[in-house]
Design brief:
alpha+beta; Alpha-D-Glucose-1,6-Bisphosphate, Chain A, domain 4; about 180 residues
């Protein structure tokens, strides 16, 4: 418990701390840079935007601003030929998600009318910005109906390989078509 005497001796100390706190909150004037109404004391009178990333800006995913990134595409984070070929090859399956920056395409469960008690789901991973066979991975998931429930079932490993090959063939076709169009 604090006695009246000790409180009286700390009163000036509390008053000083309060005065210091109020002084710290005083309204000091600062001229924030704006693009409108630039004044005579503006350090950047030309209006050019300054950046901490330098003249060329920030470059993500290893590309450059001259788009010399080996077909990776300026707006996506993966090889554009593999991306487009994956979407073309999986066009018969409804998609849940397609992330061009992460390079992942996920399909919904798909039933073929010929096999109503079987369904499958596909996930495509584009792992490289270059058009390479090892820059692509396809995962296939299969389920079979048992009564009213779907149960996981095995998948033939060749199925994923066949899908990867179909995507790679389509990607090569797209690249050749692009190179021929650039020659014309």
């Amino acid at each position: 418990m604090i006695s009246t005497e000790s409180f009286k001796s700390t009163k000036p100390l509390l008053a000083g701390a309060l005065a210091l706190l109020v002084a710290a909150c005083s309204s000091a004037e600062y001229n924030y840079p704006t693009t409108q109404g630039r004044g005579p004391n503006d350090p950047n009178p030309s209006g050019e935007r300054e950046t901490i990333f330098g003249e060329d800006g920030l470059v993500l995913f290893g590309g450059d601003n001259n788009n010399n990134n080996g077909g990776a595409g300026g707006g996506i984070g993966v090889n554009s030929f593999l991306w487009r070929a994956s979407l073309d090859t999986l066009s018969f399956v409804p998609l849940v998600s397609a992330d061009p920056f992460g390079g992942v395409i996920i399909s919904e469960w798909y039933n073929d009318a010929a096999t109503p008690d079987e369904r499958f789901k596909l996930t495509v991973y584009i792992l490289d910005r270059r058009l390479r066979a090892d820059g692509l991975k396809v995962a296939v998931f299969r389920q079979t109906r048992s009564g009213a429930e779907w149960q996981d079932a095995g998948v033939n490993a060749a199925t994923a390989t066949q899908l990867e090959n179909a995507i790679l063939i389509r990607a090569r076709e797209l690249r050749v078509n692009t190179l021929e169009a650039d020659k014309d």
